[in-house]
Amino acid sequence: MVSAHTVDLGAVIKNTETEQLDLLLSGPFPPNPSELLGSEAMLKILDSLRASYEVVILDSSPIGMFADPLVLASRVDGTVLVVEARSTSSESLKSAAQSLTRPNMNLLGAVLNKVKLNKRHNNYYYYYNSSGRRKRTKK
User: Fold this and answer.
1) pLDDT of amino acid 28
2) Rounded to an integer, what distance in angstroms lies between the CA atom of residue 23 and that of residue 56?
3) How far apart are alpha carbons 96 and 100 in whole angstroms?
4) In CATH, what class is 9-138?
5) Which of 103, 104, 109, 110 has the fewest Cβ atoms surrounding its Cβ within 10 A?
6) Domain ranges, ordered by start, for the chain
7) How far is CA 115 from its chain centroid?
8) Prediction pTM value
9) Nearest-CA neighbor of 43 among 23, 71, 21?
């Protein structure tokens, strides 16, 4: 079994058909994921990835279910919340956002997924600018 202490990243990073997109899969679920994510070995892996790639994106379990996302959030440059439309309560979203505003954490924003648009709106997308005003832009 490969461990975080002995892994050769070049051997486990997978190239994809998409140019300049590589994947590093998590592998089997470890018995102590938060300990592993918070370890010195994980810091070395992240440092190595930062040195080799312009952008590194990590996916994690939902906030509130496990400690993993908060451990990772304290070790990365920024965090983006992914929020499921009509499923995530405003209380859950507020709690998740507050938990990501601790020292050594940088909440960049949120992405709303599983949004169903009616035909009248499906040629547009919406975003909020820094002033909080909603903008509509044609695709």
Assistant:
1) 81
2) 10
3) 6
4) alpha beta
5) 103
6) 9-138
7) 19
8) 0.71
9) 71
